[in-house]
Write a structure and sequence with these properties.
alpha/beta; Rossmann fold; two-stranded antiparallel sheet; 6 helices; 7 strands; about 30% helix; binds iron/sulfur cluster
Length: about 180
């Protein structure tokens, strides 16, 4: 590429797993060799893929998982403040998913049952009474449904966003499991 035609700036992408199982991240990695293509056009900010711990100004934020504790809420708000486009990825982010199955139980009872006591170490994030989907706390621009969304859905979403289009997933890529 000559100095007259500098390469277009790469989009900056951050990803995080809140109350999730990392299965959505694993599905993202299933785009396999297309990652080499992707890395020509994007660079990763905070993500389990980079181990960067604090989100900076980004073009796209991918949120896996809902909100089960105060730290999740803080991280989600930091993503909203820094990411131009925020995407709820997977059933847990969109509806609360499996972790929200605890919503009909008392959180204190659950902690006592599991740990024999309510853990009170100040280092631990404060559990929320209910698990919330991310849209209940911040504005979300797009959703990628599925548990997890298929790798091709991540690919299509990123292709559309990189091209400046609203993402459109064809029928085969929309999952409700
Ligand atoms: Fe895991 Fe499914 Fe939740 Fe993704 S949506 S974090 S794969 S349980």
């Amino acid at each position: 590429m000559s100095a007259k035609n500098p390469a277009p700036a790469k989009l900056r992408v951050a990803t995080v797993s809140l109350a999730g199982c990392f299965g959505c991240h694993m599905s993202f990695l299933d785009i396999d060799e297309r990652l080499f293509d992707l890395i020509e056009h994007i660079t990763f900010d905070r993500s389990p893929l980079t181990d960067i711990k604090t989100v900076g100004p980004c073009d796209i934020g991918l949120i896996e998982g809902g909100l089960c504790n105060a730290e999740n809420v803080e991280v989600l708000r930091a993503f909203r403040a820094n990411c131009r486009v925020l995407v709820a990825v997977g059933a847990c982010a969109i509806t609360g998913g499996l972790p929200a199955w605890r919503n009909h139980l008392d959180v204190g009872d659950i902690l006592r049952k599991v740990y024999g006591t309510v853990p009170d170490d100040p280092e631990l994030p404060l559990p929320l009474n209910r698990v919330h989907p991310v849209h209940e706390v911040v504005r979300i621009d797009h959703s990628l449904p599925g548990c997890p969304p298929p790798a091709d859905a991540f690919w299509q979403l990123l292709q559309d966003l990189m091209a400046g289009r609203d993402p459109v997933l064809n029928k085969g890529l929309i999952r409700y499991d």
